[in-house]
User: Which sequence fits this backbone?
């Protein structure tokens, strides 16, 4: 009888040890460390309706030097814009002073756990170009004479300047104010590489003036979500904007 009882107790202990509820909890995998410098390329596709020229598709490419750090409540990502260019059916040129005039931003971001397919997300917030939202109550100005209009790229003209190259008209300097709100959402596609979509949550642009009277009107601009993407890859810690600009062809391969 004692032998049977001993055997029963041994089996019960063995089953209890094998039970998932009794097993020791597995330690959590260490969080992937995303701290460091990154190159980010954002491509935002839009369709602009132009007088006489109809709808024109263009892609605005921004090259960004990003820095990721661990904050008290999670990951923080800082952006410094290195270059902005416009390509597409209509030829538009942004002077180097445009990118230099854009203020650095920092925002909370969600990073993957280091495994392929992990989710990344970040909201860059609203950015005001060519005007001071505190002086306009947040509204994008419609006229160069309104309070709050800035010469953000310091070329002596209101707002920011873009140079358009149009058939029949030649080169036209257009002065504008803009509010744009972008958000990023993507996935880790391979080690240290994140790719995904750029969401344009808001885009309001007003023409403040132009070197040709025919273009002194605000244009209808519609974002194209299907053509708006981003990719982010790591850089050496001491990387600069010059490294991002010069290495674009190889960095993002």
Assistant:
């Amino acid at each position: 009888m004692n032998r049977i009882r001993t055997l029963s107790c041994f089996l019960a202990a063995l089953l209890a040890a094998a039970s998932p509820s009794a097993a020791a909890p597995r330690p959590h995998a260490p969080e992937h460390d995303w701290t460091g410098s990154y190159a980010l390329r954002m491509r935002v596709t839009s369709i602009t309706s132009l007088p006489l020229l109809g709808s024109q598709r263009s892609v605005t490419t921004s090259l960004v030097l990003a820095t990721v750090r661990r904050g008290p409540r999670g990951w923080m990502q800082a952006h410094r814009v290195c270059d902005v260019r416009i390509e597409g059916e209509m030829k538009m040129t942004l002077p180097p002073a445009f990118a230099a005039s854009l203020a650095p931003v920092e925002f909370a971001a969600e990073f993957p756990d280091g495994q392929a397919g992990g989710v990344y997300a970040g909201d860059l917030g609203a950015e005001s170009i060519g005007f001071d939202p505190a002086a306009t109550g947040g509204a994008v100005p419609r006229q160069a004479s309104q309070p709050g209009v800035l010469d953000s790229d310091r070329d002596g003209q209101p707002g920011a300047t873009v140079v358009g190259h149009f058939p029949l008209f030649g080169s036209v300097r257009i002065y504008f104010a803009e509010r744009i709100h972008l958000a990023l959402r993507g996935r880790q596609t391979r080690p240290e590489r994140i790719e995904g979509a750029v969401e344009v949550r808001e885009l309001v642009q007003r023409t403040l003036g132009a070197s040709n009277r025919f273009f002194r009107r605000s244009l209808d601009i519609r974002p194209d979500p299907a053509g708006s993407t981003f990719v982010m890859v790591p850089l050496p810690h001491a990387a600069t904007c010059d490294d991002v600009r010069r290495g674009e062809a190889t960095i993002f391969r």
In short: The chain has a mean pLDDT of 89. The chain has one domain: 32-251. The helical segments are 2-18, 96-101, 133-136, 241-251. The CA atoms of residues 82 and 100 lie 7 Å apart.
